[in-house]
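Contributing new records

If you add data, match the layout below exactly. Sequence lines come first and carry their own label; structure lines follow with theirs. Keep one chain per record. Anything else will be rejected by the validation script.
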Amino acid sequence: MRLELEQEESRELLSLSVERIIEEAKLSDRDRAALKRWRSERMKPGSDGMRELTGKINADLERALRTKQKSAVQKPDWR
């Protein structure tokens, strides 16, 4: 099985994560604003940062799926 995110999907995942951090972490107004500014200015679709993030997400997904596939093969049938 192969799973790969596009940059737009990675950006949506980033946006959801940042919003949750902003809502739940006890950050100052200044820190929340800086986090929002970073997301909107530096993590634009097509930016170097988004390309790098998308690559890292996809590499982690591939590694996790490969590990899960390997561990399923190694489990004994009697369990």
